[in-house]
Backbone:
């Protein structure tokens, strides 16, 4: 079991990777160590955010184009940071 201090350190490290300014900042924090780290879960989060934030269709198309261009897990994480300012916690 992790201590609060351990989790706070991981969160602080994760926040160092936040973009300076996200297109649609949400303040979401996602722990990648469990089921939420599954790429298909993250795709669902993105889809829901695009809908819930009423992102215009033109921007949805742009996001989808950028998403399709990603070739790695890290690339998808970076895209979600860029668009939604999501902070990811992992085993670092």
Residues:
């Amino acid at each position: 079991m992790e201590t609060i201090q351990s989790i706070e350190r991981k969160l602080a490290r994760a926040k160092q990777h936040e973009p300076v300014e996200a297109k649609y900042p949400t303040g979401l924090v996602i722990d990648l160590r469990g089921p939420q780290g599954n790429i298909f879960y993250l795709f669902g989060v993105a889809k829901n955010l695009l809908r819930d934030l009423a992102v215009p269709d033109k921007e949805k198309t742009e996001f989808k184009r950028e998403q399709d261009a990603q070739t790695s897990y890290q690339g998808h994480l970076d895209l979600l940071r860029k668009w939604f300012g999501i902070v990811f916690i992992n085993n670092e």
Notes: The first helix runs from residue 4 to 15. Residues 4-89 form one domain. The beta strands are 29-31, 87-89. The CA atoms of residues 44 and 81 lie 15 Å apart.
